[in-house]
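User:
I study polymers; will you set down one protein's sequence and backbone structure tokens?

Assistant:
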Amino acid sequence: MCQHIQIFLPNRPGEFYKVAKLFGDNNINIIGYHLASQGDVCVLQLMCVPHDKAFCVAREQYRTYCSQRKVIVVRIANSPGQLFKILEVLSEKSFNIANSYQIGGKLNNALVIIELLKEDDFHICKNLLKNEGIDVLETVEDEV
């Protein structure tokens, strides 16, 4: 099962730097991220290797402002129309995406990170994508 880390940060200069430095100092690789401003707060979502160590380090530093969520990670060819296929399956079954971003993978592949609005839909959606022949990953460690 894949998870990403979510940290709420003050929206001011240097806050993302502090997270990147903390992870770098602890030999944690940030393989993908999404940063979004929401007024006085920023929401930072991170895919890290190793994940468990990253979450422990982040949780120690950011306490209640840090959480982890299950995500579906899909490997696609980095070419036109690939994302459409995934979104078509999700749309047809009315799965609601809470957050999504894409990161580079090995060779000419990309990894699509999908967090569903309803965590209860996670296993159903993951199995549906697999049954449609979509390459759903169980871990991201081998992708870096």
